[in-house]
Amino acid sequence: MLEKLFKLSANKTSVKTEIIAGMTTFMTMAYILFLNPNILSSTGMDKNAVFFATAIAAGFVTIAMGLVANFPIALAPGMGLNALFATVALTGVGMPWRVALGAVFISGIIFVILTVTKIRQILVIAVPNSLKRAITVGIGLFITIIGVKISDIMSVSTSLIPPTLEAMNTGGGRATLKFFEWNIGMGSFHNPSMLLCLIGIAITALMMARKIKGSLLIGILLTTIIGIPMGVTHLPENLVFFSLPNFSNLAVGELDIMGALNMGIWTVVFTFTFVELFDTFGTLVGTASKAGLIDKDGSSPVIGKAMLVDAVGVSFGALMGTSTVTAYVESAAGISEGGRTGLTAVTTGLLFLLAVLISPIVGMIPDAATAPALIIVGVLMASSVLDIDFSDFTEGFPAFITFVLMPFTYSIANGIAGGIVFYTLLKVGTGKAKQVHWMMYLLFAIVVTRYIFLSE
User: Fold this and answer.
1) From the CA atom positions of the chain, what is the Rg in Å?
2) Do residues 53 and 322 lie in contact, with contact meaning Cβ atoms separated by under 8 Å?
3) Which pLDDT value is given to residue 165?
4) DSSP letters along 428-456, please?
5) Do 46 and 285 contact (CB within 8 A), yes or no?
6) Of all helices (H) and strands (E), which one includes residue 158?
């Protein structure tokens, strides 16, 4: 039955190989179970509820990827996208988390429409490889910024500037007063949280260098244990390792779709759709490319089915109570173990569902223990910079703009938008307009329209 369902022989693999590959993929990305609750709980969401939503969404959507697309790719709430959900949508716009979930759900429906009409598949071919690689690099840098910030390695503070003449900026014919300035620097080595993170980075990096499977997950667990005597990891009085989550606090079905529409369909839903469209595209393509599942022209016989599962997963994740579900680059770890079919994904998905039983452990994991995983994942994703041709300025500069703007403007969408604009401009301006896919011109127009008419 498994042979017929997953075409194991045709893909030169076996049940044993696929199961081992699925377990490997789970071990390399299981950190999201600990990290996602820490990030989304800052919005007021219950940490236990987010853990449940993360495990259930990752489990069912990954299983669907294996059964529907026969792809050895695992999915879970995406890093960078959950940060956008927590810091940009909620803090910047002042949107309640239920409304934000509603916006994510709507964007998922839009993704389904774009996939069924094959617009997303065209996008895979239209966006040049240099920008695809740059997107992966940029997301890696974005994730790294989050890691060094939550671990206190990067110290961020504000200071009051007295309204003196020295504090005045003149420009545009008017004077403005600067009352605050940002101070960014290195954290203190007297901070136990920062020290614990550095210890975790050293442990995890050493295991990665020795190619130990599950290094990220093992690193999180070891760092958490080390944090107990340091006073960073706080043990509850009545610690229970295995139990079902408190279902009374779950956020299943708590999304507010009408609220998202009422707060402004153009400014809210479009923003989520704009960001998630490029983020999910970049992560899915980046993951599949890294795994050798997409050819040099950016096509694949099952990419359409994979994108459909990814699109449905966005809305399903919001319904469960978590941010955007997307493909994970760590799936390449399972691929390296020989995973070639959807059985790898099904195995990974089942393990995510079983992970619901370890929900009590989640509350113990400090930010300093999960930050090393973020930084290491950033390294893995940033390695794609080696595949960018910087000898061709029309390729290298747009790619550079893409992965630089992401962390420096704290926006993945800004980076992708900048890359699209400069790629199109440089190609047309140097007489290479024929190298630009027609879809890129449409994206160029959408990006310009978005930033001219929808920017605050």
Assistant:
1) 22
2) yes
3) 44
4) HHTT-GGGS-HHHHHHHHHHHHHHHHS--
5) no
6) strand 154-160
Q: Is the distance from CB of 260 to CB of 103 less than 8 angstroms?
A: yes
What is the predicted pLDDT for the residue at 239? Answer: 63
Q: Could you state, in order of their start, the residue ranges of all structural domains in the chain? A: 2-158+184-234+241-453
User: What is the rounded average pLDDT of the residues 240-255?
Assistant: 70
pLDDT band at 170 (very low <50, low <70, confident <90, very high): very low
How far from chain centre, in Å, is Cα 414? 15
| DSSP-based three-state secondary structure for 115 | helix
Q: Whole-angstrom Cα distance, residue 408 to residue 447?
A: 19
Residue type, 384: S
Q: What is the number of alpha carbons within 13 Å of residue 303 lying toward its C-beta? A: 26
Question: Which of 367, 359, 293 is CA-nearest to residue 331?
Answer: 293
Which token pair is 34?
């600990």
pLDDT recorded at residue 293:
64
CA 20-240-320 angle, to 5 degrees, is 65
Angle at 38 between CA 37 and CA 40, to 5 degrees: 65
pLDDT digits (tens, 9 = 90+) for 42-75: 788 888 889 899 999 999 999 999 999 998 889 9
Q: Residue 175 pairs with which residues in a beta bridge?
A: 170
